[in-house]
Specification:
alpha/beta, Metallo-beta-lactamase, Chain A, seven-stranded mixed beta sheet, 7 helices, about 20% helix
């Protein structure tokens, strides 16, 4: 590896990170002619592209969330399946461990390998494939939680906190704010593994993506839409888990529950001020991103002499990597949204 400088063929343009010989953008924040999409979150995937390259699962997510059949020319790849983008560029996807179908985009050109990791995590997740370390010449990483304060606990620890609260407060309705894609399904699956046997009650915004996960073999047990329960039957929810988008935990929607206990599941809950801002009575530190230690570990394990950092706490990660003898630089891409945590 390393025969051609990546800076000669990978550029930052207005729409995002651009592979010149393939005429393709990686996770562009606006509609482009050719797009390589790492995963289905809205700050990485969108409608309007002429041509899309993504994993099979991400393609399905994009159909569910963003566009209809036939709107965009699609190439859906399995992990490790190589595809010729033209002009000597080969693309393949390696798992990123972020959500269902999430991938690192691996681009090989003229003897050089660049890995654009998108969003990723190293903690185990029963709802998606684990992160795969890919040796490369350039590793392009996020830095959402790139500060030493961010050391994410195992999800099982946070789920046990929730279980203890339900045992201690059986009269209360535990309303858990979760992002609809990935976080919701991961929390449900981990609760089942921890022994939670009651039905889940879901906000309608979580329905389609939970069904999509089930179509790929995930089993969450019984779940019921909140809207299917008569408003007068508040007692049904007591001692149960209700899952909804974070914005709804203190919204008018939550008034239908008996003695609600607002809870937010997010990596940002490690910061008390963030928990207070969300008016969360219980804060669960649940992140689908790599924490400080895993960001550094991953950059080192790729053996990449050059690390490019897309967004987040860029300066802190850049400084730490340079201390360790790794060439690091900030790309300062726009269009990335941390609210998905």
């Amino acid at each position: 590896m390393g025969n051609a400088s990546a800076e000669e063929w990978m550029q930052v343009r207005e729409a995002g990170l651009y592979c010149v010989p393939a005429n393709a953008y990686i996770d562009p924040h606006e509609a482009v002619e050719r797009a390589i999409i790492t995963h289905g979150h809205a700050d990485h995937a969108r409608s309007g592209h002429g041509e899309v390259f993504a994993t099979v699962e991400t393609t399905a997510i994009m159909h569910t969330r963003y566009y209809i059949e036939g709107e965009t020319q699609e190439t859906a790849l399995t992990y490790g399946q190589k595809h010729d983008l033209g002009n000597g560029v080969t693309l393949w996807f390696a798992s990123a461990g972020h959500i269902l179908g999430s991938a690192q985009a691996v681009l090989e050109y003229n003897g050089t390998r660049v890995v654009a990791a998108g969003d990723y995590k190293r903690h185990p997740d029963p709802t998606c494939a684990p992160f795969e370390v890919v040796p490369c010449d350039v590793f392009i990483t996020e830095a959402t939680f790139a500060l030493p304060v961010f050391q994410h606990p195992p999800l099982e620890v946070e789920v046990e906190k929730l279980m203890r609260s339900m045992r201690a407060l059986p009269h209360r309705t535990h309303i858990v704010g979760v992002y609809a894609l990935g976080k919701c399904q991961r929390v449900m699956k981990t609760l089942r593994q921890a022994g939670y046997e009651e039905p889940f009650y879901l906000h309608g915004a979580l329905k389609r993506l939970t069904e999509l996960y089930e179509s790929y073999g995930q089993d969450f047990g019984e779940w019921i839409l909140v809207s299917d329960i008569p408003r007068a039957d508040k007692h049904v929810f007591q001692g149960k888990v209700v899952l909804c988008p974070p914005a709804q935990i203190n919204d008018r929607w939550s008034r239908r529950f008996a003695d609600p206990l607002p809870t937010v599941a997010s990596g940002w809950m490690q910061i008390r001020a963030r928990a207070r801002q969300k008016r969360a009575e219980m804060a669960l530190v649940v992140s689908d991103h790599a924490d400080w230690g895993d960001l550094i570990r991953t950059c080192e394990e790729t053996k990449a002499p050059d690390i490019w950092i897309t967004h987040g706490r860029v300066e802190a990660l850049e400084y730490e990597l340079k201390k360790r003898g790794i060439r690091a630089k900030a790309l300062n891409l726009i269009g990335r949204d941390e609210s998905v945590e």
